[in-house]
Amino acid sequence: MRILIYIEPHPIRDSMVAQLHVANYFARMFMAAGQMPPDYDYRLYSNANILTTILSEFPSVKDLCLMPTVAEQALFQRNLVPWLERGMHEWIALAHGEGLAYQYHKVLADIHARFPFDLLVHWGANGAVDRFCNDNGLGRVTMELGCTRSPYNSTIVFDPNGVSGSASPSLVDIADLRTVVGSKGSSAELDLMTYSGSAGRNLYEARFDYNAALDEQIMGMAAGRRIAFLPLPAHDDPNLQLYSRFSTPTEVVDQLLPQLTEAGFFCLVKPHPAMRTRPSGGAEHFRVREVIFRSPSAFCIDSQMGASANIRLIELSDVLVTVASSVGFEATLHNKPVCVLGKAIYKPSNVFPSLDDVKSQRIFEQDFDNRYKHETGVLRSFFLDAYLVPEKSAFDLTVFTDRVRQLSGLRGPAAEIVQSIYRQFGSAGRQQRLVQFDRQPPSSASTPTKQEQDELLANVQARVSALLNSTSWRVTRPLRLTSAKLRGVDYIDPREPRSVQEGIRTIERIMSSGSWAISWPMRLVEKGWAALRR
């Protein structure tokens, strides 16, 4: 069998090497394998920028690289246009099979003339690939990052239909999964323990961690209200642009915050960290924060907080509302209700509550909660046992070859495809994760006792009490007044509150919000004061 691995040659985000990390996955896989499986012939195709970089680091894969012709490379270079003005729109159209798709359809025909492949494996959405394979009766398998990331088990998706809102599970009803998985489903607690990353069982224990500063701050601001956690997509995320009714993260928060806060929720909003590094992301990040700060019932979580912080945010929240974030699926491992507004890879019909269900707070009714936990148990059984492939296994050449070979033959309705996937991979996948879990050594970490937690809180209270009485606190009062003004709230001097804990919450709110220019002097003073005190 001849297999072409098509690594997107089209320029993305003002770069010719945006898919270099994908090429690295495959180059390492082939280098580690050394010898190709018998009866299989592989080629890697991309633009010259990516393949030249790969060959400089992995020269042993030279014979596997199918370099573009001069005309093809010239075409790719011409398509490198400003991302904001044209690039992103052309990329979205290409994913839909429109716009530049006809150019890449011809490129694929030329590649096939040089290397008559039987199966095409590609990464992400690409309408030209879909059309070419359908027109010529060729097999294709689409790959993408899975919906669990570190500190959970990092995974990869293989699907014969597509990824994100075009993936097979997103095209079926939960009843189709229940037919093959069984009606019982899987326990969230067991799934959390058996689908952790290198931390192993610590992820289950992390549910019960107590972070004095974070927990007190959030619970204090919520003031008894239920908490909704909103992890935002990046501004140019395909899930946002291709599979949702929203066009920007600002639009997401602008529409959702009024509805959720009026329904009695306090909202924790976390912008996507990629917005700070991708073209035009900084401006969009600023607009998102501006909308959040206008709401007295919302708080902006620092986007640079590590992924492990999401565990605590999920645990503190009562519901998670997302467009299609992988955090949504991860929240099901914690038995949290999740409202998915877009077409997510993990969203078959009749599983997740609607926004109206959230606003009416019907999701907290016992009957609704029982049905939801049952259905998400079925969903997790399919995904964790059969559909998601741990990253280390996905790029083992033997596993990779077997996976794409079996998937390439799947045709027909999505319901039949997902059932075939579970029958082929489900039993072995479940056994593998249970065996790996049993082999893990016991964790040496332990959850802090109530006494240790009280001591942590007492230390924070003592530190804040001293700060309130210090000269530095009086000096920074203008900064605090300005910060309150920008956030549109009345300033309350923390020396007047009913308790020192109110002072703690005020300090943490100020130090975590507003622009960096306003909050950094306070951070600096507080750190300097703490150093002198030590």
* Percent in strands: 5-15%
- Terminal CA distance: 68 Å
Number of domain units: 3
CATH class of the largest domain: Alpha Beta
Low-confidence stretches: 496-500, 513-520
- Would you tell me which CATH topology of the largest domain applies? Rossmann fold
**What's the CATH architecture name of the largest domain?**
3-Layer(aba) Sandwich
Q: What kind of sheet is the major sheet?
A: 7 strands, mixed
| Coarse shape | globular
Helix content: 40-55%
Number of strands: 12
Mean pLDDT: 85
By DSSP (H or I, 4+ residues per run), the number of helices equals 25
Radius of gyration (Å): 25 Å
Provide an overview of this structure:
- The protein has 534 residues and is of the alpha/beta class.
- The chain has 3 domains: 2-137, Rossmann fold (3-Layer(aba) Sandwich), CATH 3.40.50; 168-439, Rossmann fold (3-Layer(aba) Sandwich), CATH 3.40.50; 450-533.
- 53% of the residues lie in helices and 10% in strands.
- The protein has 25 helices and 12 strands.
- The strands form 2 sheets. It has a 7-stranded mixed sheet, with helices on both faces.
- Strand 4 (119-123), helix 6 and strand 5 (139-145) form a beta-alpha-beta unit.
- Helix 7 (174-181) packs across helix 20, helix 12 (249-262) runs parallel beside helix 13 and helix 17 (366-387) packs across helix 20 (414-439).
- It is globular, with a radius of gyration of 25 Å.
- The protein starts with a strand and ends with a helix.
- This is Capsule polysaccharide export protein.
- InterPro entries: Capsule_polysaccharide_synth (IPR007833), TagF_C (IPR043148).
- Pfam families: Capsule_synth.
